[in-house]
Amino acid sequence: MRYFIKSVEHSVSPSSAVHLIPVSTPKNGMSSKSRKRIMPDPVTEPPVTDPVYEALLYCNIPSVAERSMEGHAPHHFKLVSVHVFIRHGDRYPLYVIPKTKRPEIDCTLVANRKPYHPKLEAFVSHMSKGSGASFESPLNSLPLYPNHPLCEMGELTQTGVVQHLQNGQLLRDIYLKKHKLLPNDWSADQLYLETTGKSRTLQSGLALLYGFLPDFDWKKIYFRHQPSALFCSGSCYCPVRNQYLEKEQRRQYLLRLKNSQLEKTYGEMAKIVDVPTKQLRAANPIDSMLCHFCHNVSFPCTRNGCVDMEHFKVIKTHQIEDERERREKKLYLGYSVLGAHPILNQTIGRMQRATEGRKQELFALYSAHDVTLSPVLSALGLSEARFPRFAARLIFELWQDREKPSEHSVRILYNGVDVTFHTSFCQDHHKRSPKPMCPLENLVRFVKRDMFVALGGSGTNYYDACHREEF
């Protein structure tokens, strides 16, 4: 099994940032037939890493319902709780290519426009009734669904809403209809909902929640606000984590300097748009280019020429090479262990309370960013996992053995694929035990102690690892 990971949206380095942006057809009078088509048509995964194929996977354009492995367990296991981490769905670019026209993308929700979802119209109607809902400040000042005829920077689009309506419906079919995780008269304290203060994460969380619990009672919904993209709550101060990040950013910078083809490509693109190369690079052109790629629209042109597919492929290929080196150097792993520990610690605490028979917080949803999911994947040992696409989902399932009620197990799923036995804490489980699932104590021991082994040194807890002086 092969995966692909890269850190992006908030901070690692401008040169490594990857963004995919859903875009509706420009209102420029051009028919789809008259515009250049750039979308590839892959049938099977290519034998070698293909930058175009990787980018297409990242687009994650809603189509047929996907197969998933969520909720699969031997018949004598009972589902106890579920913990869902999502990346927000498709959004408008955070950056634009200098001196090119800003893409005209409609961020209103239109039921008969692609991508379509049968619950889209009902979702809009239900969101319009939620003005009196209870959200932790400053979430109460955010719109509950995207609604601008011309998207604002970073705004969720219809594609992003549909992606999470699909996610929610898939999880509803598995966890509610099949496994009865929540009773029909579920209460507010059986949900735990948390999001960062961006409209795209709140709206993505609401879209998934609506697919999961259609026409939910607004009085039972409370979204907590998380100021940090790492979801570290009161445990965010960690000097050594920041040192790892600085070293990782330096590694990325030096790798970019060594790539003469990348620098040549940036130079060519800068001439086309008539700006200094440094300014173009700082404007993160891949963010806007992926918008055109994902929606099959020609790259921008000026009187000096056109940005083209070869430029795109060079930048994307460099990102893939950067991933390979990142895995070898292990600096990002150090950052990830310290970045992901607080949220993993919260999750196992919630699981342990569920094993005691408590019925609160049976379904937890964290609506987050790529820079939330990526460190968690890396810290779990899933270093080969593909970078979190738009609307990516990472799920922790807690199960009880009905034949031995005191025994509990966990499953980890990434975009519907069971990756439990690829994690650091359970990759050798089959060698030692005939049990078909991973014991919860493996995950607890890993989060409380073993995950710090990757950092070297003598620290076996979060505080010591964050403050060791020998780094």
Automatic annotation (TrEMBL):
<dbReference type="GO" id="GO:0006024">
    <property type="term" value="P:glycosaminoglycan biosynthetic process"/>
</dbReference>
<keyword id="KW-0472">Membrane</keyword>
<dbReference type="Pfam" id="PF00328">
    <property type="entry name" value="His_Phos_2"/>
</dbReference>
<dbReference type="InterPro" id="IPR029033">
    <property type="entry name" value="His_PPase_superfam"/>
</dbReference>
<keyword id="KW-0735">Signal-anchor</keyword>
<keyword id="KW-1133">Transmembrane helix</keyword>
<comment type="similarity">
    <text>Belongs to the histidine acid phosphatase family.</text>
</comment>
<dbReference type="InterPro" id="IPR050645">
    <property type="entry name" value="Histidine_acid_phosphatase"/>
</dbReference>
<dbReference type="GO" id="GO:0050650">
    <property type="term" value="P:chondroitin sulfate proteoglycan biosynthetic process"/>
</dbReference>
<keyword id="KW-0333">Golgi apparatus</keyword>
<dbReference type="GO" id="GO:0000139">
    <property type="term" value="C:Golgi membrane"/>
</dbReference>
<keyword id="KW-0812">Transmembrane</keyword>
<keyword id="KW-0378">Hydrolase</keyword>
<feature type="region of interest" description="Disordered">
    <location>
        <begin position="23"/>
        <end position="44"/>
    </location>
</feature>
<dbReference type="InterPro" id="IPR000560">
    <property type="entry name" value="His_Pase_clade-2"/>
</dbReference>
<comment type="function">
    <text>Responsible for the 2-O-dephosphorylation of xylose in the glycosaminoglycan-protein linkage region of proteoglycans thereby regulating the amount of mature glycosaminoglycan (GAG) chains. Sulfated glycosaminoglycans (GAGs), including heparan sulfate and chondroitin sulfate, are synthesized on the so-called common GAG-protein linkage region (GlcUAbeta1-3Galbeta1-3Galbeta1-4Xylbeta1-O-Ser) of core proteins, which is formed by the stepwise addition of monosaccharide residues by the respective specific glycosyltransferases.</text>
</comment>
<comment type="subunit">
    <text>Interacts with B3GAT3; the interaction increases the 2-phosphoxylose phosphatase activity of PXYLP1 during completion of linkage region formation in a B3GAT3-mediated manner.</text>
</comment>
<dbReference type="GO" id="GO:0016791">
    <property type="term" value="F:phosphatase activity"/>
</dbReference>
<keyword id="KW-0325">Glycoprotein</keyword>
<protein>
    <recommendedName>
        <fullName>2-phosphoxylose phosphatase 1</fullName>
    </recommendedName>
</protein>
